[in-house]
What does this fold into?
Amino acid sequence: MMRLSWLVATLPLRRPPLPPPQCRRFVHPWLAHQETLREPAGPSSLGNLPDFKGGTRLLKEAYKASQLVTPNPRIAHAKKRAAKHATQKIDAYAQSLSVALREQLKVFRSVLRDLPPFEGQLATLTLAALEREGGRSLREVENDFDLMRRAVVRAGKEATADASKATSLIDAKERMEAGLTSVEDTFNEHRGALDELITTVGKLRRLPRPVGGEPVLVLVGMPNVGKSSLVSATSTGTPEINDYPFTTRRLKLGHVIGTAGRYQVMDTPGVLARTEDERNPMEGLTLAAVEHLPSAVVYVMDLSGTSGKQSAPLLQLGVREQVRERYAGRPWLDVRTKADLPLDPEVDPAAIPAGTLEVSVIDDINVDVLQRSMAQLVGDEG
It folds into this structure.
């Protein structure tokens, strides 16, 4: 029989410092203690990402801004008045586009910078996944977006300089129209940068995420051990089915209405038996949920030997020791699923953590006990 001590020794997990948790109110003693350690989190959320205005809308607003410019009656000379009017209309048009682009990018960067830790990790994982799928990095997209704005400013300056040289009323009008067209053409030439950033922002805004202000029970375990079934069995109502760009798995987020309020039950991608630097983005989501959310851990194990080779029972017990050590002191519940099936012969019953709750969703074994135990983790009477 493989020794658990050997497994733990060969599958190390470096325990990082726990980041400052977000400021929320919870009942469980551990969560209540964390409340005293919390610093106010940033006000941002992925839902606060700006709704970028599309190219057509920006051009319409720029046109309206240019139409508000009227000739200056204080300029007595008709030719000079027409030339000045032409330069001011072009400048208003270009400035409207430039300022709108600059402010949208500024707000976008500000929101990303101030995201709560878990949402920040979600954004990072998503952007990395988009890049792996052949997309460009966010830095490249932002650089092209800024180059677009600079090109519009430059086109506006060149057009106003040209319009200032008008020699007649007709010439001033023609130079003005040519200048406005030049700025618009420059904008459209670089418009792909705006469209690409709009697409990226849209994907980030639609990322599923737990409801702020509610405790989260994070179900952690190796692949195919029954986490998703537990979410469905313990949730009040139908769980949400969440899609993330960095995983092909559809993850469930359940909501439970208890006697002391609401809490959430979160399915997560499986954590594999390997070192920290080998972990993929799916595992990163799981660890980020435990580290950055106001969460309790429900460690889910299938010790029947029916979950596949990569989730062999002894590996599950070894990973459990790693995760438990990493999050020592966190509210914790061990659950063995498929309790209607016998233990795998390689599992020594004495190696199963004390207090492990045996559950079978199929045979409805201890599902009600699991619901009460999970509620108690977050301070609910169940």
Notes: The two ends are 39 Å apart (CA to CA). The chain has two domains: 4-12+21-28+215-377, 46-205.
